[in-house]
Amino acid sequence: MSVEDILLGSLIGLITGGAVAFVIQNIVLKKRTAKILADAEHDGEALKKDKILQAKERFLKLKEEHEEVIKDRERKMQSNEDRFKAKEKVVSQKTEELARSEKEIEKLKAELDTKLTAVEVKNQELEKTQQKRVAELSRISGMTVEEAKAHMMEALVDEARTAAMVHIKDITEEAKLNANKEAKKIVIQTIQRVATEQAVENAVSVFNIESDEVKGRIIGREGRNIRALEAATGVEIVVDDTPEAIILSCFDPVRREIARLSLHQLVSDGRIHPARIEEVVAKTKKSLEEEIAETGKRTCIDLGIHGLHPELTRMVGRMKYRSSYGQNLLQHSREVANMCAIMAAELGLNVKVAKRAGLLHDIGKVPDEEPELPHAILGMKLAEKYGEKPDVCNAIGAHHDEVEMTTLIAPIVQVCDAVSGARPGARREIVESYIKRIKELESLALSYDGVTSAYAIQAGRELRVLVEAEKVTDLKSDELSFTISQRIQTEMTYPGQVKVTVIREKRSVNYAK
Description:
Layout: H1 3-141, H2 145-192, E1 204-208, H3 213-219, H4 224-233, E2 236-238, E3 245-249, H5 253-269, H6 274-303, H7 310-318, E4 323-324, E5 327-328, H8 329-347, H9 351-360, H10 375-385, H11 390-398, H12 409-422, H13 431-446, E6 451-457, E7 462-468, H14 474-491, E8 499-505
Parallel strand pairs: 7-8
Antiparallel strand pairs: 1-3, 2-3, 4-5, 6-7
Helix pairs in contact: 2-8, 2-14, 4-6, 5-6, 6-7, 8-9, 8-12, 9-11, 9-12, 10-11, 11-12
């Protein structure tokens, strides 16, 4: 056997074995496929049954929910039906009551018509009787109807006036009992809670020196130093025989302060000549302006006032060197601001606005230029110019009644200004004006009939009026007191308030002989 036969035989064997293996593998694959299909059909059936079961459960659940919704709607409909029936029943009852009321009204109307007819008949009878009586009275008294009416009206007017005065007195006393209690409480608490330092500024300042030798140096050769100082400061410098003192006279406190500080620096330095005087005065002016601005800022900070215009702040600082009736203006304004804040807090108003208005109420007294306007009006215009609120501007302009009050802050500022100015020791008053006011008070009281004498006491804060008991009754004395107080209030200007006391004294005198 050759090699080729062997190889051919081997090849045939390999081919025959591969075919058999392929056939076997094919049979195995078919069996696996049949098993997989059977398993898939089984799983499909199980899944189908599960889905059908889930669908049935879902259907039953939806059916239950639907039935519940239908039942709920039926319950609501039944409730609404019951409510409508109840309302219908109430309406029926009210309709019946209305019908009964209409019947009663008709019945009352008929009775009223009957009564009115009877009243008209009686009125006609009374009118006829009245006419007969008037005619009889006219015949008896000898007076006509018009004369009798005039006499009766005069008597009624006197009686009404007396009754009105009694009524006014009762109302006044009742108002005092109710209102004065709270008002006094607020005012007294306000005054007690404000501690005030008293400062009196005059038109003259005194500069103290160590020895009289300094006076010659201040005067200078042929008076050139004192003339230069007066020209630079605008202050009259009086060097007389007063020991160790030089008098500075000027109506402007700022100028006097500049002159005093300049003199102090010149005397301390020792170099006093015209050029040095001009230099020192210029520096002092600049320094004082800075101090004024700083005083204004410090005052606003102390009072808790923010956002004030720089020009208004500077004017507040200038108040330190201005006085009114001997009362320092800055101290007065601070006092008014604090009292306004306390009163506003007691009354439930805006405390910050009240304090701001109280501080600025006299700002019109310290402008750089002084036009011919009342200081309240000028202060209001300045406040408007520098962006203050309308409430503050109105309070400034109305605190002396130059303009009408439009806010509740305005009367508070007016009251606090009067309290600050009228307290004892706050202000000095010119003797001539004080005497004139006292005489006017007494003359006003003496102008009434029945007044024997009048005395203004307690520095013009009380007026005592003595009347004749024969001419003035007790009721007339009440009327006289009220009338005099009203005239004082409308015709005179005065700080604080004036108490009017009318004294009626009855004396019976007999002699035993």
